[in-house]
Amino acid sequence: DDITEDMIEHLDKAGDILTKLAEGGSEEDAIADLKELSDEGKDLAERMEKLGEPDEEADKQLGKKYDEKMTAAQEKISGATSKLASSGKWNPELQNALASVMPDVD
Fold it and tell me: How far apart are CA 5 and CA 67, in angstroms?
């Protein structure tokens, strides 16, 4: 539960950073904020790796409890990136900064 909640919060922060940029914020600030957030992503990835994959029942319970919040956080990111793309602000440096935020677990 804790890791799932932290993951949702992490994604929500990334969405907030991108939304702020889409609404006229500074690209430099957004990239710096995303890079800072990437450290949290690394910590989450380590925690997730140590915990391992949930069993089928735990995965089902987590889905019931958190799917709506996870989807909302992902949609926030998607909506912001769409706005950035249509405004011409979406560029490789910003894409790389966002990619570094997302926890990478095998």
Answer: 11
